[in-house]
Structures are given as C-alpha cells and as structure tokens.
Amino acid sequence: MGGGSLYRLRFQAVRELLSLDRHWWLVDARDQVLGRMAVQVATYLMGRHKPYAWPHVNEMPGDHVVVVNARHVAMTGKKLQQKLYRHHTGYPGGLKSELAHSLLARQPGRVVEHAVRGMLPRNPTREWIMAERLHVYPDEHHPHGGQQPIPLRPVWRRVGRSGRLDETDDRRHAEAVEDAWNRVVATAMPPRVAEMVQAARREVGLGEDKSEK
Predict the structure, then answer these.
(1) Residue 41 and residue 116 in contact, taking contact as beta carbons nearer than 8 Å
(2) Whether the predicted model's global pTM rises above the 0.85 cut
(3) What is the CATH number of domain 26-187?
(4) Which of 82, 129, 199, 202 sits at a 20 to 30 Å CA gap from 121?
(5) CA angle centred on 144, ends 111 and 183, rounded to 5°
(6) Residue 85 — very low, low, confident or very high, per pLDDT cuts 50/70/90?
(7) How many CB atoms lie within 10 A of CB 179?
(8) How far, in Å, are 61, 187, 200, 213 from residue 190 at the CA level?
C-alpha cells in the first residue's frame, strides 16, 4: 500500500471527525443589541470560531444556533421607531414596508433572521444555513432541549443607556465551552484516528495495518 493511499485514509478519518464536531449553541436575545448579536450568531453559523474550519476539509463547518427571546431584542438609537423593513411581493406595485417596532411585535423572528442574513456571505449556501442551522424563537421556550445547547456569552446587553453583563452567564459559558472542547479532544485523540483508519481499510478490503497500532 502506497503512502498516498494511507494519506487519503488518514484524511478521510480526520474529515469524518471534523464533520462529527457539530455543536448546538443557545443565544438569549433579551436586551442584546441586534447587530452585535447577529455578528456573533453568523460567526458560529459559518464555523469561523473553529481553528480548523478549512473549506477543503469540511465545506460546512458551522454549528447550530438557537436564539430565544427574540421579541425582547434591543436596538440602538431611534431604529426601533424609524428603521423600515421592505420586501416585494413580486407583483406590480407590490413593495411593502413596515417599521421595526411593528414587525418586532408581529413576527420577532423575522427581525433576527433579517439581521443574521445580512451578516452571512451572499452565496448559494446562505439560505441553506438560514433554514437548517438557525432556529429563532420569540420566547424562552424551544424544542431543542435534547441537543443540550451550550449558552453563549452575551455580546452586549443594553438596559437604558448602559450595558450590563451577568457574571453567571460568563461562568456557565466558560464551563460549557471547556466541557465541549474536552469532548472534541477526546474524540480526536490519535487512538481514535487510528481506529477510524483501520475501519476504512477494512471497508476497502485492505486489511489491518500492523504499523498503525
């Protein structure tokens, strides 16, 4: 067996490990500034927070993000009373516009989705990411408890004219991230990679390589 074939098997094993490294993150939008929160959400959706987000290894390295309390998101300045959201129905004269406070009261999820969509690259995968990996809910209840989403540290919470950060959120986020990183390290240990290489060799009928043990 040539070195190139062994390299390909190793590459496939690492690629499979990276594809399995998919986490769920929880963002509490209450009192968070919409734009700054959207930047953080888009970063995790694209996988830019991962040091191994290589396009040639994993085309979709991003994670799932659950946003709760979307109706309580904050906007700076006078955007809540002045910002307009526009869309076209496709028919002549079908341009529709709605103020931010009206849309936020009627469909708060659309406000968050509109902000996050603007932070993602304009390519064919943008709508797929929005549909498959972004989950927005107006209140604190969501059906993704089984995935055990990791709470993300708030970027900036606005209360009146000042911002505040809850130390409890910071500590819980640090503990959750450390636990998730330990799981990733345990999965990507050399014995696990060697085991996956041996499994790939058996699938292609090459048998086990004694040197890999």
Answers:
(1) yes
(2) no
(3) 3.90.1180.10
(4) 82
(5) 115
(6) very high
(7) 11
(8) 21, 9, 15, 10
Q: How do residues 39-78 score in pLDDT, each as one tens digit?
A: 999 999 998 887 766 666 666 778 999 999 999 998 888 8
The amino acid present at 106, given as its one-letter code, is R
Q: Do 110 and 103 meet the contact criterion of CB atoms below 8 Å apart?
A: yes
Do residues 67 and 135 lie in contact, with contact meaning Cβ atoms separated by under 8 Å?
yes
Sketch the domain layout of the chain as residue ranges.
1-21+188-207, 26-187
Q: Are 67 and 136 in contact (CB under 8 A)?
A: yes
The β-bridge relationship of strands 150-151 and 162-164 is unpaired
Amino acid at 15: R
Report the run of H or E that residue 27 belongs to, with start and end.
Answer: strand 24-28
pLDDT in tens, 152-166: 877 765 544 444 444
